[in-house]
User: Fold these one by one.
Assistant:
Number 1:
Amino acid sequence: MLYRTLDLAYLLEGELVGDPEVVITGLAKIEEAEPGELTFLANPKYEKYLSETRASAVLVSREQLAEGKLLIRVDDPYRCFAKLLSVFYPPEPLVELGVHPAAVLGKDVTIGQGVRIAAGVVIGAHSVIGDDIALYPQVSIGEDVTIGAGSIIRAGVSIRHGVRIGCRVIIQDNAVIGSDGFGFAPTQDGGYEKIPQVGTVIIEDDVEIGAGCTIDRATLGATRIESGAKLDNLIQIAHNVVIGANTVIAAQTGISGSTKIGKNCMIAGQVGFAGHLTLGDRSLVGAQSGVSKSWPDNSKIFGYPAIPLGEELRLQATMRKLPELAKTLDRLVKKVEELSAKRNAQ
Amino acid sequence: MLYRTLDLAYLLEGELVGDPEVVITGLAKIEEAEPGELTFLANPKYEKYLSETRASAVLVSREQLAEGKLLIRVDDPYRCFAKLLSVFYPPEPLVELGVHPAAVLGKDVTIGQGVRIAAGVVIGAHSVIGDDIALYPQVSIGEDVTIGAGSIIRAGVSIRHGVRIGCRVIIQDNAVIGSDGFGFAPTQDGGYEKIPQVGTVIIEDDVEIGAGCTIDRATLGATRIESGAKLDNLIQIAHNVVIGANTVIAAQTGISGSTKIGKNCMIAGQVGFAGHLTLGDRSLVGAQSGVSKSWPDNSKIFGYPAIPLGEELRLQATMRKLPELAKTLDRLVKKVEELSAKRNAQ
Amino acid sequence: MLYRTLDLAYLLEGELVGDPEVVITGLAKIEEAEPGELTFLANPKYEKYLSETRASAVLVSREQLAEGKLLIRVDDPYRCFAKLLSVFYPPEPLVELGVHPAAVLGKDVTIGQGVRIAAGVVIGAHSVIGDDIALYPQVSIGEDVTIGAGSIIRAGVSIRHGVRIGCRVIIQDNAVIGSDGFGFAPTQDGGYEKIPQVGTVIIEDDVEIGAGCTIDRATLGATRIESGAKLDNLIQIAHNVVIGANTVIAAQTGISGSTKIGKNCMIAGQVGFAGHLTLGDRSLVGAQSGVSKSWPDNSKIFGYPAIPLGEELRLQATMRKLPELAKTLDRLVKKVEELSAKRNAQ
């Protein structure tokens, strides 16, 4: 589809600076854009590209200046660009409407209106599949599972028996929801006995779960991902964990059993949380941190073990000087010995 | 099902402190229990909840006191609670008995008695499936695989050709057993040539493998998980690794090629082991550690790189004071310079 | 198959030191080899085994000496051993030739010559499957996917719509190619709105992707794995990342959005890269490093945060002495106070 810059500025409620009749044929990143394309500038790191970009127009913030460039000034260039993505590019084709004959449904499965169930899907007895749901190939759904309307479950996802999934949830490929929690009691012969994991997983509305994530069922009660939380790929959520509403977690982070993460937190990648902790609402955790104790609301923590961000940055700065400090200390020891010797010689 | 406290105390060989006729309707965690439920106290962290819990009865250790609470005193409250889980909650429904018509079996596959093979399972030629095995949907089994009696293989697991799996093994969803080891020889043009990975994986009896784990086949010989070992989710086991009997490994740990982990070890989450190392029996490794050399039996190590636990804790304590130490050193340098200057001025 | 040492030396263009008529029946690692087997010595760590090995012959480098041992001296013992693996052991059985009746192909799918498509494979409309490709059970391929000749896709892999895969690519079990990138824009109510991920993934020729890897599609444009790159298991590649040609990445490493890794790099396991960085060609990154800024060609970096390798090793060495340094500083403070007091007392 083609749009004039005038139309796009109108659509985005933006201020047009430059020619309103330029035709935009597509979107691109600022360093890769070609003539005819529109790009955006949101991350200050990329400001250097603004003068060089070959894009025909640039979405920028309200205050941005750029001589000789065709600009559309908006409140939030990234969100506006995101909006245009859906305008310029057709959405990914969904699974075909209906239940594919090569899907296998157990007894008393309830299927809503407008569902799309692909070949190779297996659904266990008594499960309830809401309206407008898309299940991609090889999704496995256990018994007594409920999935709310509008959810999209990608290929190879396994959802185990009794799990509850809300509306408009997206689960990326090969994620696992409801695997057994990791619980064993030592036996007298040095081995272990499995603790039955009789709880479940509850995933509330508007959650997104990344590819390859593993979310264990609770020993008792429920592991819970609250509404609007977003999990990146390959994240491990242990039994009885709670992830607060609208919390965002980056890839490869792991959260040990019974830990409760607050609402509206941002947790970077490859972070590890010990078990039985609490992280307060609106907290930030830096990448690769190791969180070994509880933290209150609004914490900003970082490091291994995690400490307040400012402290960790000071620590890292000092640490880099450590070999030098050691040398200074060495020299000082000698100097003081000299002084002391001279004094004693007096 | 309902039980009187008297019956439960009898069942657990425990000592009842309080009313024997209270009816228990279910189990719950101490901070979530409601009247009518029984809970337990095993982790001292949770002792504060003992006076507050709304539970009608609490499983505690033999010495535990708690005024006004109905107690059942036992040797091991956690194990007893685990036992009650199976008493109060029915086990998860297994796959239906028999071979589902939508499963695909290759030539000369041998199937034992009492097997449960779900829709979408594919089994390669010459494989042997023991008695009482459950294979969930979309399990893929290669050629010449053997699986021992009583094993449970969850949805989406891939077991590659020639792998040997023992009895009563549990493999959680989407794990991979027998993928190619990561071996390449550099070529003269700067590229790499694949080293054939002609070995296999042997998983002994009573092992549990977590969801999304990847266990590579050996280059030659076997990658081996010894009997009773328990692996949490998303663990990477490289080619020719050996995991000793009854060793427990937490989520997201990775073990590089040819490393041998001893028996009865406990390895925390997100730990990394370099290749060609040995970790002795009964060793403990702290979370997120980076193990870069071999360690003898009974080691307790922690850190990046991993060092003896006590040393690491001292190190971390000192490190936290590092910015302060740097300031002290700074002041001291000035002071010594003054002293020295005065001395020289004498 | 059986071979005489003479024949093997001839095949490998090696120099035979010892009896040319010894019959070799198999291959083994140096510490596990039995009489009748041939082994190799490449890693100096294993040199201690050379005198003890029970192997009947040993592949060694041109200069290696070992009294009383039957040696075949070659330029590259590891590569020669790898070559013999294919000579002694038959290759893993491939999927049967043809399209299994329990595979499901969408409209207008194009299938090349000599393909092997297993039961449970689902291929979306308009996809193009090149010659001599093997698709294992439960592979899910979206719409408009292209896979080049000679590629091998293992069980449970999900390749999402529009992805382009080159020739001779190997993708291990349960990997995901083309899952949605992790992109959300905050909304005014504290939640998040999904940014459409309309880009794709391009995997060039001769790439290998490990089991359980997740490679996200680009927001716009393509996430790209260049020719000859090798990825171990459970690696996370975020949207718009580029991995340079012939770069090797060990297990459980994660690379954040838009980061560009150069060609011929070697990246160890459990490394994390922040987003929007560049790592230059031929760089090395140590295990568990946290890479927080860009680095030029030929960098060797290590640590958390990653710094030049030599610096990090010096830092780690000094750090181990830190508790001792703190004590020295303490003593020194007292000593200087004494000196100062004495001086003032004069």
Note: The mean pLDDT of chain B is 94.
Number 2:
Amino acid sequence: MKTRFVLIHTSHAGNVGAAARAMKVMGFSDLVLVKPRWANVLRREETIQRASGALDVLNNARIVETLDEALDGMTHLCATAMTPRDFGPPTRAPRQHFTELLLNQELSPLVHNGMKADFPLVSACQPESVAFLFGSERFGMQNEDVYRCHVALSIPTDPLFGSLNLAAAVQLVAYDWRQALGGFAVEAATPERQLADGAEVAGMLAHWERALAGIGFLDPASPKKLMPRLNQLFNRSELSIEEIHILRGIAKAMLQRTGPDAGKASLPAAASPDQ
Amino acid sequence: MKTRFVLIHTSHAGNVGAAARAMKVMGFSDLVLVKPRWANVLRREETIQRASGALDVLNNARIVETLDEALDGMTHLCATAMTPRDFGPPTRAPRQHFTELLLNQELSPLVHNGMKADFPLVSACQPESVAFLFGSERFGMQNEDVYRCHVALSIPTDPLFGSLNLAAAVQLVAYDWRQALGGFAVEAATPERQLADGAEVAGMLAHWERALAGIGFLDPASPKKLMPRLNQLFNRSELSIEEIHILRGIAKAMLQRTGPDAGKASLPAAASPDQ
């Protein structure tokens, strides 16, 4: 969905750069600045440094004089406001609002048949485009800019310390919006583990039982609860087939140190691990 | 739940300050630095500036020589790694992992009765404490530090630009973790809207119908579909009782301009808005 980030009256060049980077890691690129403090903010050293490679976002960014110019073509306007206003659009947490916005529900008619709604009120159709508006670092958004928006997004922060950095707010909104749009895949660093089944775990445990007797750690005459304990430990480990091989290798090496028949004598070949 | 953020070999003082601020807005305060580039990083000007009031986090932060010292008392270790590793813990998106971690499910036994798991594998009990580990800005986490962790969290970013700022990563993980723990409430800026019921909407529309005829906009002899259109518009607006009063006030003012009987003549007193 067409998505635009609008920074209004931004003071710190570093925040503009960091906002560009925050947008780009979440796959967004449309940045508009309304009357930033520095007319040359897109070319300032601190901006470029904090953008850290998101230069295309800066190069394509527009600087405009008024919020009207910034909002051309945008149908759903989201203010971001950390401080309450007397009037204006409903306040929502971003994650909740985005879920509802994309649900394409048909709930509205119910409300007007005389019923009070105790479910979230959402418009019956998805917007075509979404703009996120961010006010200045010191003063946030002006009231008149909030009033024209469809919603005031409030990022849930500690009531005792709500001082969210501007670029951090852009990062969180970009993240939640990207996730709501379906998100990016997380690249699995390790191959999927192929889990061992119960028989493989039982076989490995029987092997260990012999080995532990062989090295003199387990007394077959008085095994106590050692094997059930190990069984539970390995259950929690959710062993892969490869790990079964490793553990059997260890058992084999223990047995080789103690002579081939050391642990075999008085134990059944395959003790049930479920005893 | 006891939560610690561990920054390993951090280079930029500004990132340490921004990380402290990012933690604090999400209600976390336990910060440990392992061998930061600057021994005095907690007192550097850039750190304090970017912390923007999260000074208690900086004041209580510890600087240690080794990761071992940083992890005392922490039971569940989360690496953050943007680049894949051959070995090591499973890679997960933070939001997914946190949900599973807090589910306190009893799924594990099933896996070992010979069934392959096609559901998420979670440990049967919640951890007592969680540490989030972040590597250096340039190189990320070292392999041996990742290997000791229970999971490698990977924030889902654009595959074409995964360059997430360190403090931004701390912000996103702190946000997702706080949300998973129940989150902070969003303070409603505006009082709850009390919705008008169907009868109130219909009464207002009848008032408008008279007024629009009064000012000559609606031709009672050929009303076309004006009133149903307005009805649909106001349905989508989900009118509050207060807004009904405003709209009736406008209708009244229109009628006063045109004489009390101007619009009444040929219209029923309460036209059904559902025609």
Note: The two ends of chain B are 58 Å apart (CA to CA).
